Amino acid sequence: MLKEMQEALIAGKKAEVEALVDQALAAGLPAARILNEGLIPGMERLGTLFKNNEVFIPEVLVAARAMNAGLAKLEPHLVKDKIQPKGVVVIGTVKGDLHDIGKNLVAMMLRGNGYKIVDLGIDVSPEKFVAAAKANGATIVALSALLTTTMVQMKAIVEAVATSGLKIPVIIGGAPVTKEYANQIHASGYAPDAASAVEEVGRLAAA
Fold first, then answer.
1. pTM of the model
2. 82: buried, middle or exposed (CB in 10 Å: 19+, 13-18, 0-12)?
3. How many CB atoms are located within 10 Å of the residue 207 CB?
């Protein structure tokens, strides 16, 4: 059943994923097991396929929708069983930038991998990132930018997080962003795509 759930998830079959989650719960499977052996491995496999250019953004978005539908059914059970998320990621597109497809993709894939996501949306100021990180007990702050002109905002946010006393890593990504730029502004991590972002967040959260 859990293997079927992975396959349905990768294929983006939302109704099938929901039905399989219902069946698994009805069969008495713990919500944590359904998440850790059904939904999360499906998203991890999808991440690998995406990295290898075997699936593309439209397929990932459809699969992420199916995963969110499955998660919505599991959430009340996970809360009741007091299952803790792997970490809390505050994510947003930086001030002046109105692009959100990449950010949404990263947020969906992180959510599918067991993280709690606080999505601040687009055009987010350094102050808002810091306030949200403090209010939500963030493990990591994740920044996205799609324009070379808004990339400079990332430096201001990295500095704001550092001076706020929050001892948490900041990860950056987006089309114009490079590993060199991440090093230059002292960001803790960099990801060229959504699948790499999940791996990098995992690395930073475990550090």
1. 0.84
2. exposed
3. 8
